[in-house]
Write a structure and sequence with these properties.
Layout lengths: L3 E4 L4 E4 L2 E7 L2 H17 L3 E5 L2 H11 L4 E3 L5 H13 L8 E6 L8 H9 L5 E8 L5 H8 L4 E4 H4 L23 H18 L3 E8 L2 H8 L1 H18 L5 E4 L4 E7 L3 H16 L15 E8 L6 H17 L5 E3 L2
Parallel strand pairs: 3-7, 3-8, 4-5, 4-6, 6-7, 12-13
Antiparallel strand pairs: 1-2, 9-11, 9-12, 10-11
Helix pairs in contact: 1-2, 8-9, 9-10
């Protein structure tokens, strides 16, 4: 087995050993996404073991016949690590590595032992994918899962029918809101600007700031302020495309990357966000004393700036102008 594995259509490379969690919705999706990984394992002469339920096992047995090992049963989390060590210990010289695919129970979502073992044995030529079926999952729930899993593939949050939609590592996440942090955003913006420049594409960013956030904290407490930040982050995420990136940039600021989007289109997106946030019930049907609103600055490439920090500064200046005019509005950079 090579020292790395490529996953999904995005071609992300992960250095072995890998213990990953794949959250999926239905059996067809599961098979469509793992069959290429199993095919790759067979072609590379790696031992491949699938552990799961009848339907997936039967389909894989038809396709791969005797080239992979199918185990039609449920393995409990406490039994998995001893079993895995035993199987890897029996790996013959004819195989160049091992891949394990296991349909797992909820116990595996917080299962730290496997991860710890991987960290202490960097020479393992081993890829383990724990597959967990779920209808839907929220940002905060995902954040809890990430505390024990460094690589989580969540197909249905972003790109339907695509195995690698986003790999979220906790170093890239804001711990309060669950969205990306400033470091990740600046890294992605730099990459997208290079791509936009190379192919002469447009690109825009939105700088979002909560109006009079200090007064919100003073009147209702910091716990309520934290919930407002989290809810606004979720509203923004739900309003964007799968290719867009939203991150927390400051205490009460979010920033949005809109690839291949002209500034005029970005302004329309900003107006839609203003409406969604203003009409959201942050007080959960309790008596409202204060409306929650935001101001947004919009900047675009190439007309406003060509570099990462220059473009952010342009959006920040437009945001400041929106706030000085009373807030609850979006303004484009001049």
């Amino acid at each position: 087995m090579n020292r790395y594995i490529k996953l999904g259509y995005e071609g992300i490379e992960l250095e072995l050993p890998v213990h990953a969690l794949y959250i999926y919705r239905d059996n067809e999706q599961l098979l469509a996404n793992i069959i290429p990984l199993i095919t790759e394992a067979v072609d590379r002469h790696e031992k491949c073991i699938y552990i799961g339920r009848d339907k997936a096992c039967n389909e894989l047995k038809k396709k791969f016949k005797d080239t992979i090992t199918i185990i039609n049963s449920v393995v409990e989390a406490p039994d998995f690590l001893p079993w895995l060590k035993n199987e890897y210990g029996k790996l013959g010289k004819a195989f160049h590595g091992m891949r394990i695919f296991i349909e797992c129970s909820k116990e595996f979502l917080g299962y730290e032992d496997v991860l710890d073992d991987f960290n202490t044995q960097p020479d393992l030529l081993l890829f383990v994918l724990c597959q967990y079926q779920i209808d839907e999952i929220g940002t905060q729930e995902l954040l809890e899962i990430l505390k024990t899993h460094p690589y989580v593939f969540v197909e249905h949050l972003l790109k339907p029918n695509c195995f690698y939609s986003r790999v979220k590592h906790r170093i890239w996440l804001d711990p309060l809101t669950g969205i990306f942090n400033r470091r990740y955003f600046e890294n992605q913006l730099s990459k997208e600007l290079q791509r936009a420049s190379r192919y002469e594409h447009a690109l825009s960013i939105l700088f979002v700031d909560i109006d009079q956030f200090k007064k919100v904290n003073d009147e209702y407490g910091h716990q309520f302020g934290d919930s407002v930040l989290s809810e606004i982050s979720q509203i923004i995420e739900r309003s964007l495309r799968s290719v867009d990136v939203v991150a927390r940039y400051g205490v009460d600021e979010c920033i949005v990357l809109l690839p291949e989007t002209k500034k005029a289109q970005a302004f329309k997106t900003a107006q839609r966000l203003l409406h969604s946030i203003k009409n959201h019930d942050f007080f959960k049907n309790k008596l409202k004393v204060k409306e929650i609103a935001v101001s947004i600055g919009v900047a675009g490439f190439p007309e406003d700036a060509g570099g990462t920090y220059e473009l952010i500064k342009k959006a920040d200046t437009a945001l400041y102008q929106a706030k000085t005019k009373g807030g609850n509005r979006a303004l484009e950079a001049e």
